Amino acid sequence: MGDQAVPAGQIGALPTGGYDMIRLQRALPERYTSASPDDLDRWIGAAKAALGERVLVLGHHYQRDEVMGWADARGDSFALSRIAAERRDAEYIVFCGVHFMAESADILTGDHQQVVLPDLNAGCSMADMADIDAVEEAWEELALTTDVERIVPITYMNSSAALKAFVGRRGGSVCTSSNARAVLTWALNPAGDGQIPPPGDRVLFFPDQHLGRNTAFDLGYDASDMRVWNPRAPHGGLSDVDVKSATLLLWRGHCSVHQRFRPEHVAAFREDHPDGLVVVHPECAHDVVESADLAGSTDFIIRAVDEAPAGSVIGVGTEIHLVKRLHDEHPDKTVVCLDPLVCPCSTMSRIDPPHLAWVLEGLVEGEVRNRITVDPDTAAWAKVALERMLATT
Ligand code: 13P
Ligand code: SF4
C-alpha cells in the first residue's frame, strides 16, 4: 500500500480515492515517440535486465503483443491481483493493464513496493460509470425506502479504489468475473457461515449490470428478482415497491467492448460452423451469454480454447487482442472473433512500447514515473473488501 506524497513533476500520478477519475498523462519525450520498434525493444530489454528481480511486469490478457512479450506474468484481473500480492520481493510492479487493476495491486502490495501504470490514461470506461458520489447518493436514496443494513454492496473488480472502500466499510465484497458466483452466493446466503460477516438479503451490484445479471441467472434467480438502478434517474428510476421486491439491484453500467456482441453474431457463427464452440465473457449481455456454449473470465476463455480438441472451430466473444493471441497460439484450431467488426479495449491499448520503455528507463535512473497510490484510509477499507473476496473464493 503506498502512502507517500507524489513527488513534484510526476504530473498525473495522483493518489486516488476521492478524485479517482482525474488522470492526466504527460506527453512522452520525443526519444520515445520517434523511436523504432527495434530501438524500443532494445531499451525495454536493457532496462529490465538492469532492474532484474527488482521489477515485476504484469500483463493483462487484453494487452497488445508488443507489450505482453515483456510480461513476467500474464493473467486475468483476479490472477494478477493475487500475483501482485504474492511477489513481496519486487520493488516495482509495472502494471500493463488498466487503472483499477494498478490500484488493486497497490492496495494488496507492501509499503516497500511501488506500482506503476505506464500510461495514466489507461482507464476503464465501465469502472468510470459508477463514481463514488453517485454510489453514495444511491445508498442514501435506498435508505429512504429500505433497510440498507440488509443490503450487501458488491463491486466488480473493475471499479475505483474508492468504491472498493465503500463496499469494505459496509460489509460487502469485491468480485471478479471468475468468482462472481461464489461472492453472490456468499452475499445472498441467508444462513451465513459464521466465519465471515453476516450477509444480507439483497445485493447492490456495480458497475456492470451484465455480470450481475448473468451470475444471478446462473444461480437460479429470475428476471423478476432483479431491477436495474439507473444512477441518472431520480431514485434510480425505480418505485419503492420495485426496490423492496428486488433481490438484486443492478447498477446500470456496462463494458463498451463486450456490449457490442449480439445474439445475431452467435447465430451467424453457428450457421457457418454448426459444430463450432461459442465462448463469451460474462460482461456480454444475457441474450448473448444464453446463446453461447460457455461463458467465463478471460482465464476461463483461454482454458476453454486450450482444452478444445484439435480441429475445433471456436467463436470467442471478448476483446480482440486476446482473441488474436488465441488464434496465433493454436494453429491446430480455428479461433475467430464473434464480432466481424473487431473491438479493442481502447484504454488498455494505451499501454504501448514507448510508455513501457519510458517508465522502465525512469526506474533505472531512480525516477518512479506514473506511480499509482491509494490513500491509506481508502486502501485499508478497499483491502477489507478484497480480502473478503479472497476468503470467499
Ligand atoms: P477479467 O477479470 O476476466 O480479466 O476481465 C477484466 C476485464 O476488464 C474484462 O473486460
Ligand atoms: Fe474496462 Fe471493458 Fe476495457 Fe475491460 S474491456 S478494461 S471492462 S473497458
Tag the structure with descriptive keywords:
393 residues; Rossmann fold; binds iron/sulfur cluster; alpha/beta; 15 strands; globular; disordered N terminus; binds 1,3-dihydroxyacetonephosphate; 16 helices; 39% helix; five-stranded parallel β-sheet; six-stranded mixed β-sheet
Question: CATH class of the largest domain, anyone?
Answer: Alpha Beta
Rounded Rg? 21 Å
Bound compounds: 1,3-dihydroxyacetonephosphate, iron/sulfur cluster
The total count of strands amounts to 15
CATH topology of the largest domain: Rossmann fold
**CATH architectural group of the largest domain:** 3-Layer(aba) Sandwich
Total helices: the number is 16
CATH superfamily of the largest domain: NadA-like
> How many discrete domains?
3
- For the biggest β-sheet, the strand order reads 1-15-5-4-2-3
Report the biggest beta sheet as strand number plus sense, adding barrel if it closes: 6 strands, mixed
Low-confidence stretches: 1-20
Amount of beta strand = 15-25%
Structural class: alpha/beta
Distance between the termini: 22 Å
Average pLDDT reading: 90
Shape: globular
Q: What helical percentage do the residues reach?
A: 25-40%
